[in-house]
Amino acid sequence: MTACMRVLVATASTNLQQLICRLLARSGYTTEPVASAEAAIEAARRSDYQAIVTDMHLPDCCGATLVGRLRREGVSTPAILLVEEETPRLREVATRLGSIRCLTSPSPEQLKEALSSATASPKEPA
């Protein structure tokens, strides 16, 4: 049930962050927005999330690097990367890091489906 699902939203763009949080709130998700990788890591240390949504353009590192850092710290929360263009290399890196999905300009339906899929997948050990 999405009503109690918590999603960490890490994007540097305030507009994108507000759009994602508003969309997820309408679908029953609880969100915590952050604007940097460091803030996302700190949030993931203090709280459990069912999913993480991040874009590739954080001020202190890219979204894929953020997911890698979280994995090294033992955080296995499913991650969805928002990308401008999905390339085979990016997909390979994202998969290796434990990202469930890369999305390019996702529609609300695609984002909700990706979250549903991510939270249905068992967490892999770090």
Reading off the top of the CATH hierarchy, the class is best stated as Alpha Beta
CATH topology: Rossmann fold
The figure for the number of domains is 1
In helices, the fraction of residues equals: 40-55%
In CATH, the homologous superfamily goes by the name Response regulator
Task: Report the uncertain regions.
Answer: none
Please state the second-level CATH architecture. 3-Layer(aba) Sandwich
Secondary structure: number of strands: 5
| Series of H and E elements | EHEHEHEHEH
Estimate the global geometry from the Cα principal axes. globular
Please list the strands of the largest sheet in the order they lie side by side.
2-1-3-4-5
Can you tell me about this structure?
- The chain is an alpha/beta fold and 126 residues long.
- It has a single domain, classed as Rossmann fold, CATH 3.40.50.
- It has five helices and five strands, in the order E-H-E-H-E-H-E-H-E-H.
- It has helices at 14-26, 37-46, 63-72, 88-97, 108-120, and strands at 6-10, 30-34, 51-55, 79-83, 99-104.
- A five-stranded parallel sheet has the order 2-1-3-4-5, sandwiched between helices.
- Helix 1 links the parallel strand 1 and strand 2 (30-34).
- Helix 2 (37-46) runs parallel beside helix 3.
- The two termini are 25 Å apart.
